[in-house]
């Protein structure tokens, strides 16, 4: 299905004769005068893709402040400053600054890496220009950036089309437009435009490439005015009318972060008033408790979460980019990759190599027959040589790859190639040295082309013709591009052969060709299935072609669904259909985007992997858009993740990295919230039962500082192998259930410590005793509420935290914080409390393993 906007037409992109187009462009077939070209270059600007303007550093930093947790910390910092708790306010300011700097640095590094991929547009073009009005036209190579509307360019096989052009003259021109339309087969182009697409047949667009033939063309649009450059702005404009980027649903990362942030905000809004009211009613302390209540709210908040999240994602993105394999352009996209449970792909260029290969060569009865391939290759060989085409088209290349020497035993006599409106080719050959051929002076016509056209020229009765047509249709239904082969013996002659000689042919057989699968596609699909990611193919190709590719790659295609069926479904019905369908064929860009949105509406975290302009809408609609390095520029700009190589197995590595990062973030939340919930519960009980504060605000702050510093090591944690086995996201309710249980255990240990302190030390020892117990239990939580082996950064952090808990109350800093030394009896009783707490925590950990805190996606 073609992709071209109806609006935004440059001169020459509508109807009209060639002369009218040249007049509208104030040009001619002899080319522009150099002076006029220079004036137009100044007026229109360089012919370069406008690209995405990099954000400034201040803008990146301000954008990082929009993170919900960062906003929560800022709010707490303002409250702390308002209550003159300057130590707390300064610590919060440092955490916010570090988090924003890490995020801005990671995004800057990703943008810089993506900018290095801008190398897929042709560097030079062959242009016809004149030095002056009276000078003859001269052909020379010119940088593509210097092309202007009205320039006459020459195209040859292998050339990238340097701008949007209107064809002036063509010879057997076919163009690959898969980057624009998703169609893998080359498209015939003609200056007369007498193809089935009308005006489109006279136009070639920037981003396409010449497969075969030659042409001269006039440039009608450059730079921002080309179809390729205008695709993204046009899409943004359409979003205002309910298109791509309207008010989209939040991505998995946004849903998780927002949910956890609001859960904590509710707790904080509840905690401080409860503490104030309890102390006012029971102890009469009133606003004297406000600094302590604020410190308690800060203690409930996972202050390091923005830093931990940004560090984990930035570290994962750096590891992926280190080998040049994956570039994460938006850091939260790494989390979204880990959450992904459905990946939609555009077949052409992702699962296939954009070139055909021979699949079958059969006779009229459907039996494999090497002679059919032999004669088809003879036709391809001599059509190429005698028609003077510099390179064969893609189908001829596939035949010659399968039988490269078939034409060498013949001598070529004449050739009638394919062309606009002509869907077959004929090669006329003779065999030298064969006495029968030498005496009879016989030439052999070998005809190859569309089955219906070849069969019409064969000497067949109607029943046989109908039978062979059904066999060709069956091969096409199996996903093959079918060519019929026929031949005839003719008396030798000197005059050229014409189309009138293509009659009374003897049918030889059919050759079927299929798209060549990408070398690593099968391995990539297997890896994705192992990770619990369902793959769905969204393509503009024939359903049989797509189904065959899926079967060859080991992906069960099921029953393909064509786009015309989608138009009759509402969004709810489409969501149900999409969940159980693997292949969607004959899809337009709008269909692809609608399918992706339907999957998201059905509760799936959905990724889309595409590389063409026709994939832009789906890339924007997906939770995470992925583009290979070889994709067109606008697709890479629209993607969240760029695969620096076309090896799709690199996507599996990115998914694993994302899930491990999610596991580390989940571990941090599980550990810090369990400890913080326990402290809050203990504080509330202490406020109701004790006639004094068990810990002063400054002591709470110092304790939090050491715990937060130790938890930075969790950014370097190595979760167990099961962390990457299935899609997972952080879910606030699931997290709350787990941390509530662990938090109550922690509160029980705190309350037991209160009893020990009352029995063994007294009121004066409470701050030091609870400080020591808190840091020791937090160290135990860091060890027991995580999975996998303990890496050295985590082990060192745990040991350091325990050492601080034991040594600081005995140090001069402890005295400055109003902490007194503890009696030896306390340490003995504390060891018993910690032993019981550790055993209970281990039992709870076995019953509620770490994995469920990162809840599996529901299918």
Using only C-alpha atoms, the radius of gyration works out to 36 Å
CATH class of the largest domain: Mainly Alpha
CATH architecture of the largest domain: Up-down Bundle
Shape designation: elongated
The CATH H-level superfamily of the largest domain is Calcium-transporting ATPase, transmembrane domain
Instruction: Give the helix level as a range of percent.
Output: 40-55%
Mean pLDDT: 80
| Alpha plus pi helix count | 30
Instruction: Count every beta strand, where a strand is a DSSP E run of 2 or more residues.
Output: 22
Structural class: alpha/beta
Distance between the termini: 32 Å
Low-confidence stretches: 1-11, 117-122, 232-247, 851-859
Q: Write down the CATH topology of the largest domain.
A: Calcium-transporting ATPase, transmembrane domain
Whole-number total of structural domains: 4
Strand coverage percent: 15-25%
């Amino acid at each position: 299905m073609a992709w071209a906007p109806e609006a935004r037409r440059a001169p020459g992109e509508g109807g009209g004769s060639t002369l009218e187009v040249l007049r509208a462009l104030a040009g001619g077939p002899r080319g522009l005068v150099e002076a006029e070209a220079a004036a137009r270059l100044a007026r229109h600007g360089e012919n370069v893709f406008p690209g995405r303007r990099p954000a400034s550093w201040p803008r990146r930093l301000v954008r990082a402040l929009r993170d919900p947790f960062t906003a929560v910390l800022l709010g707490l910092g303002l409250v702390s400053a308002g209550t003159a708790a300057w130590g707390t306010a300064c610590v919060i300011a440092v955490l916010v600054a570090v988090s924003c700097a890490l995020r801005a640095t990671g995004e800057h590094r990703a943008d810089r890496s993506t900018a290095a991929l801008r190398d897929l547009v042709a560097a030079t073009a062959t242009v016809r220009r004149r030095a002056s009005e009276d000078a003859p036209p001269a052909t020379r190579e010119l940088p593509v950036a210097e092309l202007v509307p009205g320039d006459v360019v020459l195209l040859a096989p292998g050339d990238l089309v340097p701008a949007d052009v209107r064809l002036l003259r063509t010879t057997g021109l076919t163009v690959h437009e898969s980057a624009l339309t998703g169609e893998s087969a080359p498209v015939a182009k003609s200056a007369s435009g007498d193809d089935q697409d009308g005006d489109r047949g006279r136009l070639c667009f920037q981003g396409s490439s010449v497969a075969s033939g030659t042409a001269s063309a006039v440039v009608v649009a450059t730079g921002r005015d080309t179809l390729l450059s205008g695709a993204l702005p046009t899409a943004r404009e359409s979003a205002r009318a309910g298109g791509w980027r309207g008010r989209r649903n939040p991505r998995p990362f946004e849903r998780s972060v927002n949910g956890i942030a609001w859960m904590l905000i509710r707790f904080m809004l509840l905690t401080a008033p409860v503490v104030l009211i309890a102390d006012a009613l029971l102890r009469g302390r009133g606003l004297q408790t406000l600094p302590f209540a604020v410190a308690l709210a800060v203690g409930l908040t996972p202050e390091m979460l923005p830093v931990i999240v940004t560090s984990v994602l930035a570290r994962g993105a750096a590891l992926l980019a280190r080998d040049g394999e994956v570039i994460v352009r938006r850091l939260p996209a790494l989390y979204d990759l880990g959450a992904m449970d459905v990946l939609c792909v555009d077949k052409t260029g992702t699962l296939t190599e954009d070139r055909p290969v021979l699949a079958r060569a059969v006779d009229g009865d459907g039996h494999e027959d090497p002679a059919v391939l032999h004669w088809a290759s003879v036709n391809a060989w001599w059509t190429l040589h005698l028609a003077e085409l510099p390179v064969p088209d893609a189908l001829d290349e596939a035949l010659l790859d399968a039988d490269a020497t078939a034409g060498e035993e013949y001598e070529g006599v004449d050739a009638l190639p394919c062309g606009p409106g002509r869907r077959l080719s004929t090669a006329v050959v003779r065999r030298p040295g064969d006495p029968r051929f030498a005496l009879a002076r016989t030439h052999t016509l070998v005809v190859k082309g569309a089955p219906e056209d070849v069969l019409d020229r064969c000497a067949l009765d109607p029943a046989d013709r109908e039978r062979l047509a059904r066999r060709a249709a069956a091969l096409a239904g199996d996903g093959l591009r079918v060519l019929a082969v026929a031949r005839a013996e003719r008396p030798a002659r000197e005059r050229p052969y014409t189309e009138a000689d293509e009659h009374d042919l003897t049918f030889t057989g059919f050759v079927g060709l299929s798209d060549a699968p990408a070398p690593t596609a099968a391995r990539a699909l297997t890896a994705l299935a192992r990770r619990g990611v369902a793959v769905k193919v969204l393509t503009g190709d024939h359903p049989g072609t797509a189904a065959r590719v899926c079967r060859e790659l080991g992906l069960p295609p099921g029953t393909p669904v064509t786009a015309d069926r989608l138009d009759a479904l509402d969004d709810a019905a489409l969501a149900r259909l999409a969940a159980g369908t693997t292949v969607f064929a004959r899809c337009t860009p709008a269909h692809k985007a609608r399918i992706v949105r339907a999957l998201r509406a059905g509760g799936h975290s959905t990724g889309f992997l595409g590389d063409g302009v026709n994939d832009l809408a789906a890339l924007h609609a997906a939770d995470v858009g992925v583009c290979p390095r070889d994709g067109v520029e606008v697709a890479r700009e629209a993607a969240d993740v760029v695969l620096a190589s076309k090896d799709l197995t690199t996507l599996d590595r990115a998914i694993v990295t994302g899930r491990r990062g999610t596991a580390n973030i989940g571990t941090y939340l599980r550990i810090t919230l369990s400890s913080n919930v326990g402290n809050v519960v203990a504080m509330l009980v202490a406020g109701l039962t004790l006639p004094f504060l068990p810990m002063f605000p400054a002591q709470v702050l110092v304790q939090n500082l050491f715990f937060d510093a130790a938890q930075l090591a969790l950014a370097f944690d190595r979760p167990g192998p099961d962390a990457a086995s299935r899609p997972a996201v952080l879910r606030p309710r699931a997290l709350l259930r787990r941390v509530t249980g662990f938090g109550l255990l922690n509160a029980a240990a705190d309350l037991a410590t209160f009893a020990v302190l009352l029995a063994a030390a007294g009121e004066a020892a409470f701050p030091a005793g609870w400080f020591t117990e808190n840091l020791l239990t937090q160290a135990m939580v860091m060890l027991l509420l995580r999975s996998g082996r303990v890496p050295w950064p985590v082990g060192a952090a745990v040991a350091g935290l325990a050492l601080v808990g034991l040594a600081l109350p005995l140090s001069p800093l402890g005295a400055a914080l109003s902490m007194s030394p503890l009696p030896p009896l306390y340490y003995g009783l504390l060891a018993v409390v910690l032993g019981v707490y550790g055993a209970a925590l281990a039992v709870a950990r076995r019953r509620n393993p770490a994995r469920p805190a990162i809840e599996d996606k529901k299918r």
